[in-house]
Amino acid sequence: MGNAETIQLHHVRKTYGAGTSGTAALKDVTLHFGRGEFTAIIGKSGSGKSTLLNMISGIDRPTSGEIVHGESLLHDMSENELAAWRGRNIGMVFQFFQLIPTLTVLENLLLPMDFCGIVPTRLRRQRAERLVTKMGVAQYSNSLPHSLSGGEQQRVAIARSLVNDPAFIIADEPTGNLDTQNAKSITALLREMSAEGKSVVIVTHDQEIADVADRIVSIHDGAVLADIKAVIR
Questions:
Q1: For residues 44 and 73, what is the distance between their CA atoms, to the nearest angstrom?
Q2: What is the pLDDT of residue 4?
Q3: Average pLDDT taken over every residue of the chain
Q4: Residue 10's closest CA among 74, 71, 105, 104?
């Protein structure tokens, strides 16, 4: 079975639709994502990047092939098992933040801890406060998301992704809705997460952002075109 510090995709295919009218979103993809590695996935719109993220995070299932994490076979899990696995192992960051607008910043961090039950109840608020402080948004703890700038909301979203201490941070165009300065700041935060031992996988259209990564995976028409390790920095 696989290494608990990696998510491994073996000959993964994903087809939407049936028969000859089906569309192949992923074609025979074999990739490993390991601890402490910052991976950028690049490719044109419709190339299969987001589908690949959905496979890694257990949001979607392969049509064929295997997805392995330690002793866990993601492709064989029930929806409830996948949700529990995702809560323990995956932190998600999205382009449009996906913060719950009716909850304060701190409440947005407390909710995934309440859902997963990994962090003891008595420690949850303390952990949320520590993470918003680390991300530089502690002054907004009791504010609703709409009162924050885009860059500040994304910092909250990254803090939220870390609350259950997952091994993997999956980010889908996390800088796509930000100006250049905020994009660089958010990328630096994600790089810091990988330096602390998280596996960070980011989809981006921005070559400058991708160039910060340890590894660049290029996807074209659902297939891996290149998998390149960066020169040691």
A1: 30
A2: 66
A3: 91
A4: 74
